[in-house]
Specification:
The complex is a heterodimer of chains A (about 425) and B (about 150).
Chain A (H helix, E strand, L loop, with lengths): L1 E6 L2 H9 L8 E4 L6 E4 L1 H5 L12 H7 L2 E4 L2 H16 L4 E6 L2 E5 L7 H16 L3 E6 L2 H13 L6 E3 L5 H9 L11 H9 L5 H6 L2 H7 L2 H10 L17 E11 L2 H21 L2 E12 L10 E12 L2 H15 L6 E13 L4 H7 L3 H18 L35 E2 L1
Parallel strand pairs in A: 2-4, 7-8
Antiparallel strand pairs in A: 1-6, 1-7, 2-3, 5-6, 9-12, 10-11, 10-12
Helix pairs in contact in A: 4-5, 10-11, 12-13
Chain B lengths: L1 E3 L40 H5 L6 E6 L18 E5 L9 E6 L2 E10 L2 E5 L8 E2 L6 E11 L4
Antiparallel strand pairs in B: 2-3, 3-8, 4-5, 4-8, 5-6, 6-7
Amino acid sequence: MIALIDVNNFYVSCQRVFEPKLEGKPMVVLSNNDGCVISRSAEAKALGVKMGAPWHQLREFAKETGLIAYSSNYALYADMSNRVMRVLGMFSPHQEIYSIDECFLGLNGIGGDYTELGQTLKQTVMQWTGLPVCVGIAPTKTLAKLANHIAKKRTGFAGVCEWAKFSPDQQLQIMREIEVGEVWGVGRKISQRLNQQGIYSAADLAQANSEQIRARYSVVLQRTVEELNGHPCIQIEEMQPDKQQILCSRSFGQPIYTEQQLAEAISTYIARAAEKLRMQKSVAASLSIFIRTNPFRPKDPQYSRHVMLPLSQATDDTLKLTQVALWMLARIYQPGFSYAKAGVMLSDLQPNTAIQGHLFLQTADPMKRAELNATMDEINRRWGRGSIHLASAGAHHAWKMKQNSLSPFWTTRWSDLPVVK
Amino acid sequence: MTSFLQGPFPVDPNPAVHYLPWIGESVPAGFPSPAADWVEDRVDLNQHLISHPEATFYFTVSGDSMVSHLSERTIPNGATLVVDRAIQAKHNDIVVAAIDGDFTVKRLFQRGKHLALVAENPDYPPIVLGDEQELSVWGVVIAWIVRPK
């Protein structure tokens, strides 16, 4: 048996843990640069605020309705996510962290009533972290997702839905009421094709001929069909596979024009990407950077350039990567444009153990360099991101994200602890 | 547009130097350390104070409502509170509570149905909850940290 647990309105709920005042109020969390809505409270949903709605179109509406908006505070969300995942991990040795706010738990070998266990999971996460979760329990991952969907969307489940508690007739009836596009693993494109073929609901897909589905679509969708019928085909992946590439890119808070400012942004993104690279103990064998203007301002002259460079020596050294990236930037930068976004990507990743033989050939003192990088990581971990950085990352950061309504880093900085009277 | 850059590649500022790999541990000369068999983990404040790391949060105290000359449990302005959410609050615990959406730190008084939040400072009257008011205990204060000026 498998449980899928996810946090309701995760970002909004994280904010509310530290500002109980927000309970019961319509509120949203905005994407980078305060662009669009990425998390909504139930009250905001009831007001008709749509996911992905651009904030600038909602400003007036917010004044009229009292809708509150927060900038995204990823330091807080990451810490709260880690807490939730570790609390859930106490209940089963088989855990797959699927995203920042959801995970699968393998329940085989854990006896007792599953619905009761689901309630215990839910109450423990609430007590320990203050975050509300819903739980779906079923024999397959796809059905656990479906059960979770039911627990969340329908009343009367108290946040926990166990698929096996329904009779086969009820199961079919429920699946008839769920659009095929809502089924885990069915994307929008596939659901359009399925619709053309007369498959509209989860029930239609469950009853489709599994062999034909494989022939017409893929073995992946065939597995979905099997899973909807209660035959487990998708295992719980307990180890999170290391990322194959690391991307760090942002839109700027305001347009920038000079190579110097672009260099600061690129340096900052490289520092972050390299830190992630070292965290997963990998090295990168190629590096790409890109810069572009704002395509949504068609009247402005447009420029966009993306370059990739294979590195002669795979590395995780911030200094080395920055040096190469700035050299690349100098070759693609064109003056006279208003730049809106830049990014870096580290790819061809390999475990850092694979290159140790080589390492000794390149840098004068590789051990000292590794120590320097580790020390920078440690300082930034302890004192907050960006406490120490290369001079090329600059100090003024005119390009930095617009985050006008950023809440304090309540759980990750001593200076930002919540205040109690 | 993606393109591959052709050289010249940046010159490594450091000349290539061959290092001999370091093999194994250092060779002991003289006696092995008599302490080596007795290594223990250093005492750790986190370990000592915190039983539920995932449920533990810190707060900063503002104000003097918990300052008392009579009580051993006096918490000065500016102290850092260590708050555990996993513990069920009981009578006489010091708790962080949310009252009408604001955080407050007080002693929890609980006798049967009677609930109140009591300040250690006698200048502050106890907060007895009205029918309209909602009290939710956010977490139990398990320690506080005070640094001498």
